[in-house]
Amino acid sequence: DSGVTQTPKHLITATGQRVTLRCSPRSGDLSVYWYQQSLDQGLQFLIQYYNGEERAKGNILERFSAQQFPDLHSELNLSSLELGDSALYFCASSSGTSGSVDTQYFGPGTRLTVL
Amino acid sequence: SQELEQSPQSLIVQEGKNLTINCTSSKTLYGLYWYKQKYGEGLIFLMMLQKGGEEKSHEKITAKLDEKKQQSSLHITASQPSHAGIYLCGAVPARNAGNMLTFGGGTRLMVKP
């Protein structure tokens, strides 16, 4: 158990809908990362937050957005869902110590299926 | 952008055999991580390498980073069925890049009892 929790574990929805994925980082970690894992694209970085502020952005679609709240939990919002958005979405957290290479610990993931 | 190539893509070994998985980068690696993933589950952190020539071991798994910091290998000694899974290398593209990780395509390992 990495200490990172994600809910829900599974999500099935229809095209055009909007969903919210939730992540609670390990105790004390300030940085939260979101990744998408699909069969064709592999594991790809989406976005990072550090202590409530956006820190880095990867290949995140404009239909996707995220935020990190004062209690450090994070949410990933996916809207106008398409079939191709079906994937495993992972949250990871790290201590966020500035200037160092932080080990990222991954949650169990949310499997999103868009029908 | 940095790309990580893993080889082989899949591997089937007999229990007790040794094996090596490679991860090669097109650019100098600032930090290199190895993770293990059971199918459809989360990633389990194995090791992190940062310095050229660095080598780390945990139980029967040894990871090395070459001097040029462009290639890493993961070696498993006397493999067991519990080693089965997908091994992923991930790298930090540059210092102060926000610590985002770029991942290789993964190596799927099966260990036959």
Can you offer a commentary on this structure?
The complex is a heterodimer of chains A (115) and B (113). Chain A is mostly beta strands. Chain A is built from no helices and eleven strands. Chain A has strands spanning 5-7, 10-13, 19-24, 31-38, 42-50, 53-57, 64-68, 74-78, 87-94, 105-106, 110-114. In chain A, 38% of the residues are buried. The mean pLDDT of chain A is 94. Chain B has strands spanning 4-7, 10-14, 19-25, 31-37, 43-49, 55-58, 61-65, 71-76, 85-92, 102-103, 107-112. In chain B, strands 2, 4, 5, 9, 10 and 11 form a six-stranded mixed β-sheet that branches. Chain B is globular, with a radius of gyration of 13 Å. The model of chain B has no long low-confidence stretch (mean pLDDT 91). Classes of the chains: A mainly beta (115), B mainly beta (113). The A-B interface holds A 2, 4, 31, 33, 35, 42-45, 48, 50, 55-56, 58, 88, 90, 92, 94, 99, 101-109, 111 and B 30-31, 33, 35, 40-45, 48, 50, 88, 90, 92, 96-106.
Number of strands of chain A: 11
Q: Identify low-pLDDT runs of chain A.
A: none
Shape of chain B: globular
Q: What's the assembly state of these chains?
A: heterodimer
Order of helices and strands of chain A: EEEEEEEEEEE
Note the beta-strand portion of chain B: over 45%
Tell me the overall shape of chain A: globular
- Main β sheet profile of chain A: 7 strands, mixed
Q: Helical stretch count of chain B?
A: 0
Distance between the termini of chain B: 40 Å
Mean pLDDT of chain A: 94
Instruction: Give the overall pLDDT of chain B as a whole number.
Output: 91
The secondary-structure class of chain A comes to mainly beta
Computed over alpha carbons, the radius of gyration of chain A is: 13 Å
**Strand fraction of chain A:** over 45%
